Amino acid sequence: MSDFTSNFWSLYVAGITIVGIVACGLLLWLTSRKKVESTADNTTGHVWDVDLTEMNNPMPRWWMWLFVITLIFGAGYLIAYPGLGTYAGKLGWTQLGEYQAEVSRAQEAEAPVYARFASMKTEELAGDPAAMAIGDRLFMNNCAQCHGSDARGSKGFPNLTDGDWLHGGTAENIHTTIQDGRVGIMPPMGAAVGSSEDVRNVAHYVLSLAGSPHDSLKASLGKSKFTACAACHGMDGKGNTALGAPNLTDDIWLHGWGEAAIVNIINNGKTNEMPAQKDKLTDAQINVLTAYVWGLSNKAGAAR
């Protein structure tokens, strides 16, 4: 793939573009000079289907000038705008610049709408119908792709309505998550736990912590091996929001439950990423979105 980022391809595309314009101009010039010998009745002598005779009428001048204008416009466009490889164009126009200008105009237009929310606390915003209507749109446009339109998530994507938070469910924690994103890493722990049998025993111990169906004998054998996991999840298995380590006692399984699913995660680890939104959303939008997400699992607090 490195070949496609070299200067050769920029020069290659620019060369083809220039040659194409010059060739079209040359072809137009040559055809305008070519004279077809005709008979006395102004025909080319070609006849089809018995009586369809080709006349030798010249191409209308206005038609030819349309081609000329097209060539001139194409050359002028390539001088003014980027189109010849890495050449930036005289006007300095870029797609990124155009996008940023449109975003700036949209933010300026929206500023009065968000001004009313600037002094409101998260709890107040969560109870404001206008703010929540905006928050719902922000969520649908930026979050629903992963967490679902109902915010209940799916396998690998957290449910935002149940009060179970990997990094804490306070307004401040949610704001930080939306703004800066999160990266959750569960390293492969199979070697640290022990043999494959030890891994299965730990899986049953983890199931026992959550009150899920398990083999009690294997769970008792796996308890001592769980110390390899306690550095993140704690000896009691209640997790650590500072590390994003899940609570293993609440019977909420982000990546599936059961012996096979847990054994797979212990052996292979898992990496999840919540992308940062600070480059897509303004501070005011993040504040409103924070209140919306906070309100999903704090409906009583929002109502108050």
Automatic annotation (TrEMBL):
TM spans (from-to): 12-30, 62-81
Chief site of localization: membrane
Binding sites annotated in the UniProt record for heme c 2: M186, C229, C232, H233
Domain Cytochrome c: 130-210, 217-297
Location in the cell: Cell inner membrane
Name recorded for this polypeptide: Cbb3-type cytochrome c oxidase subunit
Superkingdom, taxonomy of origin: Bacteria
Pfam families assigned to the protein according to its UniProt record, in alphabetical order: Cytochrome_CBB3, FixP_N
Entry keywords, A to Z: Cell inner membrane, Cell membrane, Electron transport, Heme, Hydrogen ion transport, Ion transport, Iron, Membrane, Metal-binding, Oxidoreductase, Repeat, Respiratory chain, Transmembrane, Transmembrane helix, Transport
Biological process, per Gene Ontology: oxidative phosphorylation; proton transmembrane transport
Family: Belongs to the CcoP / FixP family.
Subunit note: Component of the cbb3-type cytochrome c oxidase.
Signal peptide range in chain numbering: none
Pathway: Energy metabolism; oxidative phosphorylation
